[in-house]
Specification:
This protein is α/β, with parallel strands linked by helices. The chain has a single domain, classed as Rossmann fold (3-Layer(aba) Sandwich), CATH 3.40.50.1360. It contains 8 helices and 10 strands. Strand 9, helix 7 and strand 10 form a beta-alpha-beta unit. Helix 1 packs across helix 2. The longest helix has 18 residues. It is globular and about 40 Å long. Bound molecules: fructose -6-phosphate. Fructose -6-phosphate (F6R) binds next to loops. Keywords: Allosteric enzyme, Carbohydrate metabolism, Hydrolase. GO terms for molecular function: glucosamine-6-phosphate deaminase activity; identical protein binding.
Length: 242
């Protein structure tokens, strides 16, 4: 695990965008794993800027979302499919049919999860997975207690996560209780993982997953076992590292 401390989210976004730009130049059909939430936004902003200003192109790229709420109707502005379109893929030239996400509206969720795993495999696996980290150490929506070998499945959100995500909704009652998320085993299959975190609110989670024991109590700690994990954080998020 390589940990890089940078002055601000802008530099973090730029460095992650450099890595993605290199990948897409070398491998135009690259498969990107796409996170939502606030953390990846500086990456998506920078990629959109490079697309507009220097022609960085994603025409053959495929994107696979990490997770999705269960219970939000298709097209809901806070569904992660919509967030990814709005924040990233609609701002660049990714083909809409190349953007995939777990189906939180399926009547047979288990079958949809299996189909999602198969779709990732059929695309050749994820070349670069963008990740944020929850204040409780989750990645994707693999909350504490998740199996380190888990695959895409339905999960119940922790109270802490619903509180953290209430800012995207009018009030906490609107935050769904359930999600479909790639598992920790699914995330570990990505060839390169780039996790970004900023701010003091992430400092404890960063300390726990970088320096603590590998444990289901802190799901992001599984990344200590990943052969190519890059952690990009600011000073505030790094403050509790020894
Ligand atoms: C989002 C996701 C979550 C977030 C995490 C941090 O797709 O999988 O793990 O990355 O909850 O969220 P932010 O970035 O909003 O602090």
């Amino acid at each position: 695990m390589e940990v890089i401390i940078l002055p601000s989210s802008k530099e973090i976004g730029a460095l992650a965008a450099d890595t993605i730009e290199d990948l897409v130049h070398n491998l135009p059909r690259a498969v990107l794993g796409l996170a939502t939430g606030s953390s990846p936004l500086p990456i998506y902003d920078e990629l959109a800027r490079r697309h507009d200003e220097s022609g960085l192109s994603f025409t053959q790229v495929h994107g696979f979302a990490l997770d999705e709420y269960v219970g939000l109707p298709a097209g809901h502005p806070e569904s992660y499919r919509e967030v990814i379109r709005r924040e990233f893929t609609n701002r660049v030239d990714v083909a809409p049919e190349n953007v995939h996400g777990p189906d939180g509206t399926a009547t047979d969720i288990a079958a949809a999860c299996l189909a999602y795993e198969e779709a990732i495999k059929a695309a050749g696996g994820v070349d670069l997975q963008i990740l944020g980290v929850g204040t409780n150490g989750h990645i994707g929506f693999n909350e504490p207690g998740s199996s380190l070998a888990s695959r895409t499945r339905i999960k119940t959100l922790a109270d802490q996560t619903r509180q953290d995500n209430a800012r995207f909704f009018d009030n906490i009652d609107q935050v769904p209780h359930h999600v479909v998320t790639q598992g920790l085993g699914t995330i570990m299959d990505a060839r390169h993982v780039v996790l970004v975190a900023y701010g003091a609110g992430k400092a404890q989670a960063v300390r726990d997953f970088v320096e603590g024991p590998v444990s289901a109590s802190c799901p992001a700690s599984v990344l200590q076992f990943h052969p190519h994990a890059t952690i990009l954080i600011d000073e505030a998020a790094a403050a509790k590292l020894t």
